[in-house]
């Protein structure tokens, strides 16, 4: 650590922006989590006396090999293997979106997993759109077996790495990963959020967040010889994703399991009732399931929406969720 700055040009700064010897000691403790070694301390104190900016001192620490090795060790400590019944999953235990819950309860979205077990068969082809780290992907792989095929569509680069790790963990040679965002056009979006990310318009070439490529899945998967089940959960971007694979859906008529979350749809400027009509234009009815034991079948979009409004009020009154946060999952089967 002490010598990584050698050979770099001096950078001086106004007095108020310069690093201090105290900053050097704090950088060791806060960033490298150790006391400074004599050689490293002497090197950085020399730089401080030359007027190195505080920002440059921080940059040197966070770009050092030691800092990156520390972060990698922390990542390995935070990822734990969880048995989800028939398959295993490497999960980030400190992830507040879902990883910590999976690690604690060994379960995630039980109604959706139950629906997949009911609908998938050995030899099937399954597309998991919004695969995250693979809870449904590897459940599907455990069911379709060596003669089946699973395609995981996931744009979040951190989740993609966990998908690859979970392929290795489970020996799932029939799982393929498309590290892209499913949409109705080829474009570039920004990912916002943590693990359960959603798509937003990029804030220019130098804007924040991860930028990801979007693609209509018809462009990539239009030649699939078969398709038996699609799971679609992309935090409110479901309508464009569905539009972008309309050819493959109408050709194969797969069972579709999709999230219906009015709050997420509205955030993405999608109309919840229009998404219901989009689904019911493809399928004669939808089965509505939820984490609260709901299991009803509807043929009209307005009936689903009325049912959601009633149930949202009920779970809110019971103190189970804040108003507007109820989501359903829809199971649609071709007639």
CATH H level, superfamily name of the largest domain: Vaccinia Virus protein VP39
Rounded radius of gyration (Å): 24 Å
C-alpha end-to-end distance: 65 Å
Shape: elongated
Order of H and E elements:
HHHHEEHHEHEHEEEEEHEHHEHHEEHE
> What is the strand tally?
14
Structural class: alpha/beta
Highest-level CATH class of the largest domain = Alpha Beta
What is the oligomer described by this structure? single chain
Overall number of domains: 2
Bin the strand percentage.
15-25%
Output the strand order for the largest sheet: 5-4-3-10-11-14-12-13
The second-level CATH architecture of the largest domain is: 3-Layer(aba) Sandwich
Question: Unreliable segments (pLDDT under 50, ≥5 consecutive)?
Answer: 1-8
The residue-averaged pLDDT reads: 91
Keywords:
14 helices; 335 residues; eight-stranded mixed β-sheet; Rossmann fold; four-stranded mixed β-sheet; disordered N terminus; alpha/beta; elongated; single chain; 2 domains; 41% helix
